[in-house]
C-alpha cells in the first residue's frame, strides 16, 4: 500500500459562521487527499483509466497543461508507476505560487512555463505545441477526459451523499470535471438540487469571457468541453478581495487553512445560503490548502 491509497474520503465540515436565517453550509475539505488537493482524485483516475486502455506502458512520458494541482497529483502517480511527467504551467504561477512549482520539481516533474500575459489558456497552447514536436508524448487531457467526471461522480459526490443531500451545490470551474461529476450525481439523487458556478468578477463561463484575475485554477478563458450546461442553474460572481478576506477569517476563526478557489467557493456558498434561508443546505468544495498561497493571501 502506498500514498495513492489515501485519495478520497475527505472530511465534510459544517461551516460555523452561518447566521440563523441562512441555510447550513457544508465544505468538502480536499487538501486531505494525498497530493494535497482535489485534483489527486482525477490524476489517479486518469492514469488508471489510461492503463486499462493500453495508452500507457513502460517508458511512457505523460504531458499535461496544469495550474499546478492536477500536475502534482499526476507527478505523484507517475512517479510511483514509473512514468516520466512534463507539467506545462502558466508562468504567472512562477510569481504567485512558487511553492507549487517547486513541489512539482521535487516529484521529478519536468516543468515547462508558458507565457500567460495574453491569455488564460497559454499552458494548453504550449502543451499542444510540444505534442506536435514529439508525437510519443501522452496527454491525459483533464479538459476532455471523461475519467475526470467519473472521479467525482462515483467518488466525491457519493461521499457527500453519505452525509447530506444538499439543496444547492456551488463550485468554481476550471476543467469542469468537479462541477459536472458532482452536479450530475446530486441531481440524480435529488432532481430539485440547484447547482451554481462560482466565478471571478468580470469572467463569464457561458461565453468564455476572461480577464486577468488572481483566482488560480478557475475561469481559464475557455468553455470547458466537459461542462454540461444542462446542470448549471446559475452563476455567482465573486470579488477577489472578498475571497481573500474570507480565507483570512476562516483560518483565524475556524482553523481552516484554505486556498483561493476555496475562498471563492465559500463566498459564493454564503450568497446562496442567504437566498435559500434556514432549514436548507448548501454544499461546496475546498479544492486545496493555503500553503501554496502565502504571498498573495496570508502575508501582509
Describe this structure in words.
By secondary structure, the protein is of the alpha/beta class. It folds into 2 domains: 3-32 and 151-298, Rossmann fold, CATH 3.40.50.1100; 39-139, Rossmann fold, CATH 3.40.50.1100. Helices cover 39% and strands 17% of the residues. The protein is built from 10 helices and 10 strands. Strands 1-2-10-7-8-9 form a 6-stranded mixed sheet. The chain has a 4-stranded parallel sheet with strand order 5-4-3-6, sandwiched between helices. The chain is globular, with a radius of gyration of 18 Å. The chain starts with 11 loop residues before the first strand and ends with a helix.
Quick description:
It is built from ten helices and ten strands. The protein is α/β, with parallel strands linked by helices.
Task: Give the tags.
300 residues, alpha/beta, Rossmann fold, 6-stranded mixed sheet, 10 helices
Structurally, the number of domains stands at 2
Mean pLDDT: 90
- The gyration radius over C-alpha positions equals 18 Å
Total beta strands: 10
Largest sheet: 6 strands, mixed
- Label the structural class: alpha/beta
Give me the side-by-side strand order of the main sheet: 1-2-10-7-8-9
Reading off the top of the CATH hierarchy, the class of the largest domain is best stated as Alpha Beta
Would you give the CATH topology of the largest domain? Rossmann fold
Order of helices and strands: EEHEHEHHEHEHEHEEHHEH
Tell me the distance between the termini: 42 Å
Give the overall silhouette.
Answer: globular
Stretches where pLDDT is under 50 for at least 5 consecutive residues are: none
